[in-house]
């Protein structure tokens, strides 16, 4: 390569330019093998020249944690779920769809029986529609109730339901229906107090466990007020007898203890005890043991105790994939007993097919996702416990109902929430949906959006109040005040017990002293008189 080569000329020019930038007085660049120079030269010109290329060293820092920025939702569904009030709108939509579906299916499944008994195909449907309207009002009321008012009224409500459970057992006050004395009938309208007990136990239990967290109090303080009260409710419902409602209450209690953070060993012990109790109750009564035998041996009595389950399986098989069509069920023509109530899912599978049944289960699955999402996003421990418990309760009842309809569980009599015909059950379930929707409005992002004026059309239509933001400081202060009052009550009880023991001891001692005083006085008089006589005789 000669000097005339243009590439060599370009390299030489570049070297000259870099040498010119360094200046004449700058030291030459070190070559490979020379001693290393200091990073910052004492020459101010070199410092000025190197300031653009070399950044100053930063002080050593601790280990860095790589935090990725929040990713934007990639789909329209993800973008919609990212909205602050998405959970609230989901709860309202699910409640509306299940209620409408329930009314349609109650009309379809009960029309034949209602016409045969009352001469009108709309008797049971009208009653169910009235209770659905009452449930919608209760849904609206639950949206209006502040959280602090709900917590303050939880124990009086639970105590009132215990009184109702006692009254319903009295002959002449409670009414027997389907072998259970569990209804009040006033003016042709029936009310089941056990359904009210479910709501009261869930709200009061969440209030107790949120006030007495496991990291602040002992296990005894968590269990003592809740477990005895729940056992009292269990006993009163078993006396009706109503095993299905007892199982529902057990699900509520287990969900409360689980979400409260009870130790796993203790929780498993309580669950095992509860399962043993359910097995004992299922095998003691005649009709319950017959249902268990029919579950394990369906062919033993196909025209007796196993008739209902067998007809439900026939209805599901008759529906196929697409179903026979709405209103075209054959089982409702007196083939399937309680087609509008306990076994309405069989009618859904027959008329709407596998796709209709899957759609119903999909709605309940969406409710599970929404309820757990609200529980995870809530800042208030009370709302976390209450929302999680309500979700497990409604989902567990759905699982049990569908399970015995398709033959996976023994028949228990639990209804399909919001779908089966049942006035009190429909109204109370809609109230619980309203409580869950109220909790959705108390999510931190939802509170910020509502206070900034993003109410939405539904909120502006109902004129719902702005929710209060959860304050951990205020909650800790209230919890500390509750603990202080509880400790003061315990101290007062101990002092009262000690004072009572002291008074009792003093009274007993005084009584014993009064009984011994005459003998002692007589002995003293005798001894003194004897000694005085002796002294006088000696004198």
UniProtKB/TrEMBL annotation:
Subcellular compartments: Cell membrane
Keywords: Cell cycle, Cell division, Cell membrane, Cell shape, Cell wall biogenesis/degradation, Glycosyltransferase, Membrane, Peptidoglycan synthesis, Transferase, Transmembrane, Transmembrane helix
Record keyword Repeat present: no
Signal peptide feature range: none
Enzyme class: transferase
Principal cellular location given in the protein's record: membrane
EC number, UniProt record: 2.4.99.28
Region (Disordered): 1-73, 489-539
Pathway this chain belongs to: Cell wall biogenesis; peptidoglycan biosynthesis
Pfam family, one: FTSW_RODA_SPOVE
Composition bias type Basic and acidic residues, residue spans: 1-45, 489-509
Catalysis performed (reactions): [GlcNAc-(1->4)-Mur2Ac(oyl-L-Ala-gamma-D-Glu-L-Lys-D-Ala-D-Ala)](n)-di-trans,octa-cis-undecaprenyl diphosphate + beta-D-GlcNAc-(1->4)-Mur2Ac(oyl-L-Ala-gamma-D-Glu-L-Lys-D-Ala-D-Ala)-di-trans,octa-cis-undecaprenyl diphosphate = [GlcNAc-(1->4)-Mur2Ac(oyl-L-Ala-gamma-D-Glu-L-Lys-D-Ala-D-Ala)](n+1)-di-trans,octa-cis-undecaprenyl diphosphate + di-trans,octa-cis-undecaprenyl diphosphate + H(+)
Biased composition (Low complexity): 46-56
Transmembrane segments: 85-108, 128-145, 157-177, 222-239, 245-261, 266-287, 343-370, 382-406, 418-440
Protein topology in the membrane: Multi-pass membrane protein
Free-text function comment from the UniProt entry: Peptidoglycan polymerase that is essential for cell division.
Family, per entry: Belongs to the SEDS family. FtsW subfamily.
NCBIfam families xref list: ftsW
PANTHER family assigned: CELL CYCLE PROTEIN, PEPTIDOGLYCAN GLYCOSYLTRANSFERASE FTSW-RELATED
Name the UniProt record assigns to this protein: Probable peptidoglycan glycosyltransferase FtsW
Naturally occurring in which organism (per UniProt): Rhodococcus tibetensis
């Amino acid at each position: 390569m000669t000097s005339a080569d243009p590439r060599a000329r370009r390299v030489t020019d570049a070297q000259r330019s870099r040498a010119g930038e360094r200046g004449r007085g700058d030291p030459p660049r070190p070559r490979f093998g020379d001693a290393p120079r200091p990073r910052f030269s004492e020459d101010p010109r070199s410092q000025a020249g190197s300031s653009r290329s070399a950044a100053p060293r930063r002080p050593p820092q601790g280990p860095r944690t790589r935090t990725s920025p929040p990713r934007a939702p990639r789909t329209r569904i993800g973008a919609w779920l990212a909205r602050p009030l998405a959970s609230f709108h989901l709860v309202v939509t699910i409640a509306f769809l299940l209620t409408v579906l329930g009314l349609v299916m109650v009309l379809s499944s009960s029309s034949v029986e209602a016409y045969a008994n009352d001469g009108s195909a709309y008797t049971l449907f009208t009653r169910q529609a009235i209770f659905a309207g009452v449930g919608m009002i209760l849904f609206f009321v639950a949206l209006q109730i502040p959280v602090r008012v709900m917590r303050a009224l939880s124990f009086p409500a639970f105590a009132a339901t215990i009184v109702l459970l006692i009254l319903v057992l009295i002959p002449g006050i409670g009414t027997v229906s389907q072998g259970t004395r569990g209804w009040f009938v006033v003016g042709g309208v029936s009310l089941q107090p056990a359904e009210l007990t479910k709501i009261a136990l869930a709200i009061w239990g969440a209030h107790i466990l949120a006030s007495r967290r496991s990291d602040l109090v002992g296990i005894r303080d968590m269990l003592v007020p809740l477990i005895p009260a729940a056992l009292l409710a269990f006993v009163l419902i078993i006396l009706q007898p109503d095993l299905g409602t007892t199982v529902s209450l057990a699900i509520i209690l287990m969900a409360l203890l689980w979400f409260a953070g009870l130790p796993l060993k203790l929780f498993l012990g309580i669950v095992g005890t509860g399962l043993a109790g359910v097995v004992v109750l299922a095998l003691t009564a005649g009709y319950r043991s017959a249902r268990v035998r029919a579950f394990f041996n369906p062919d033993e009595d196909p025209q007796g105790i196993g008739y209902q389950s067998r007809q439900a399986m026939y209805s599901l098989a008759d529906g196929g994939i697409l179903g026979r069509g709405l209103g075209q069920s054959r089982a409702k023509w007196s083939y399937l007993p309680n087609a509008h109530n306990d076994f309405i899912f069989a009618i859904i599978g027959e008329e709407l097919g596998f796709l209709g049944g899957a759609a119903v289960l999909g709605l309940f699955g969406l409710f599970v996702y929404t309820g757990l999402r609200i529980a995870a996003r809530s800042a208030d421990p009370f709302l976390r416990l209450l929302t999680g418990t309500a979700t497990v309760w409604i989902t567990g009842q759905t699982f049990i109902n569908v399970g015995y309809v398709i033959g996976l569980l023994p028949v228990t009599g639990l209804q399909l929430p919001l779908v089966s015909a049942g006035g009190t059950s429909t109204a109370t379930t809609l109230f619980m949906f309203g409580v869950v929707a109220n909790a959705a409005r108390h999510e931190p992002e939802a509170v910020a959006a509502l206070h900034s004026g993003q109410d939405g059309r539904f909120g502006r239509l109902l004129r719902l109040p702005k929710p209060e933001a959860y304050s951990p400081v205020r909650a800790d202060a209230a919890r500390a005040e509750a603990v202080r009052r509880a400790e003061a009550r315990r101290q007062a009880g101990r002092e009262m017990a000690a004072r009572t023991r002291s008074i009792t001891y003093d009274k007993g001692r005084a009584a014993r002293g009064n009984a011994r005083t005459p003998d002692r006085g007589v002995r003293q008089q005798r001894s003194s008189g004897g000694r005085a006589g002796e002294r006088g005789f000696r004198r």
